[in-house]
Task: structure prediction
Amino acid sequence: MVSSSAKEVFIQGITRDGRTFRPSDWAERLAGVMSPFRPGGAQKGSHLSYSPWCIPTVINGVKCVVVNSALREAEPMAWDFVLNFAKDNNLETGEACLLPEPGQKNP
Result:
């Protein structure tokens, strides 16, 4: 369950029973589906980059998707879709805050 105060939700590519989720490109696929959902809405060519609200990454060797709460505020149905994807596939989720790399500006 994700709290309503969560700023970011991490969907991990590990199922609740400890197995690695397949296919191996699931995070990129999910983030690709979410690419139109971005500040200012979909733009021409926006399907060519990930939304800043739904970013695939690898943390400690585990594929993850970081979903920002701004998505919930802008597009509640898209937020529900992402969380239901995690629930339906029995994926681990967690609430956290992704910190920028040293020398990187905050978005």
Remarks:
- The chain has three helices and four strands.
- The chain has one domain: 8-96.
